[in-house]
Amino acid sequence: MKGKFEDWGTIDFDKAWEKQKHLFKLGIQQRKTQNDLGFHDTLILCEHPHVYTLGRNANINNLLLHEDEMKAKHINYIRIDRGGDITYHGPSQIVGYPIINLKNFGLYTKEYIHNIEEVIIRCLNEYNIKGIRLSNAPGVWLDGKHHGKTLKIASVGVRTSRFITMHGFALNVNPDMSYYQHINPCGFKHEVMTSMETVTGKQINVTGVKSSLKQHFSGVFHLNFQ
């Protein structure tokens, strides 16, 4: 199956969200009308400047900074339309936005999230990092048997409507992990979060990780990127 890949580089979250919504609405309209409106199953990868995002059911108390403190740190928070609670995005964290028609893949939301996790697990394996799933917590985790405690390295939060998806995942490559100290990410304490850099003890090439994610997304979803 043919697909489309886009690398948006570093882009403000607001701008990326607007671009996502345009593609999302186009996909919904194409599915409703059954007319070719130019929508293609698309994987987008990018990075964002520092920002906190809160999902539909997020608890604002999981944001531990006051307004003046956020201004001093040059960071803001945005309420958005994905599932999940609060999370952080910033430089050297790869954010993935698959905007696809799940009907093309015979998937429902639960299986779709499972596939996204599989993409990340396969990518991490290339860096000798063993990612796992937890049954009650979406995302990709590291087995506590090997790291002393169970840690989260990637978050997943999606939205679907008429089987079209938006939002997606965030994989910590080399981000400034101190920003997690100011939130309870996904309702957990900040100490639960980790990164590829923290686990391996060295800086990881972000471009290389993007390439790996693209390759494994293609493999898991059986998409040939044009």
Structural class: alpha/beta
What proportion strand? 25-35%
Identify low-pLDDT runs.
none
The string of secondary-structure elements, in order, is EHEEHEEEHEEHEEHHE
State the total count of DSSP E strands.
11
Overall 3D form:
globular
Across the major sheet, the strand order is 7-8-9-10-6-2-1-11
Task: Give the number of helices.
Answer: 6
Largest sheet properties: 8 strands, mixed
The radius of gyration is 17 Å
Fraction in helix: 25-40%
- Average per-residue pLDDT, rounded, comes to 93
Distance between the termini: 10 Å
Summarize this structure briefly.
The chain is an alpha/beta fold. The protein contains six helices and eleven strands.
Defining key terms:
alpha/beta, 6 helices, 226 residues, single chain, 8-stranded mixed β-sheet
Descriptive account of the structure:
The protein is α/β, with parallel strands linked by helices. Helices cover 31% and strands 29% of the residues. The protein contains 6 helices and 11 strands. The strands form 2 sheets. An 8-stranded mixed beta sheet has the order 7-8-9-10-6-2-1-11. Helix 2 links the parallel strand 3 and strand 4. Helix 3 crosses helix 6. It is globular.
List the helices and strands and how they pair.
Blueprint: E1 2-10, H1 13-33, E2 42-47, E3 51-54, H2 67-72, E4 76-79, E5 86-89, E6 93-99, H3 109-125, E7 131-134, E8 137-142, H4 144-147, E9 151-161, E10 164-172, H5 196-200, H6 206-221, E11 224-225
Parallel strand pairs: 1-2, 1-11, 3-4
Antiparallel strand pairs: 2-6, 3-5, 6-10, 7-8, 8-9, 9-10
